[in-house]
Amino acid sequence: MMEKATLIVHSGDMDKIYSALIIANGALSMGMEASLYFTFWGLQRLQKGGLEKGSLSKMNMMGLGKKMIQGRMEKANVVSLEKLMTDFKELGGKIIACEMTMEIMGVKKEDLRQDLIDDYGAVGTYINEARDSKITLFI
To answer: Which pTM was predicted?
Structure first.
C-alpha cells in the first residue's frame, strides 16, 4: 500500500493555502498519495474565482501586506496558487469538499470549481482518508 498524506484545509488565508499545496505537492513528488479536505474558510478557495482571493493570516494591512508578499514571491519565482493547484491535480492529488460546510455556508456544487473536486463528503470521508495516512495535518 502506498504511503499517504491527508491535509485538512480549514483556513482560506493565502499563505496557508500555499503551505497546504506545497506540502501536498511535495508528498506527491516523493511518491505518496495526497488528499486535501477543504472545509469552512478553506472551502471558499474552491469557489469559482476564489483561489487567489484569500488574505494573509498575519500582516495583511488591508491588502497591502498581501501585495508586498506577492511581489516578493514573484521576484523569487514562486509559482501561483493556480499553478500549484494544477500541478497537484496533474500529479494525482485528490480534493474533497466538505458537504457540511457547504450546507452551513450556503455553497452549492455549481458555485465550486468542478475541475478540481474529486469527491464531496462529511467527516467520515475525511476519516477514511486519514486512517490510512502516514501524515495528517490541519492547516
So the answer is: 0.91
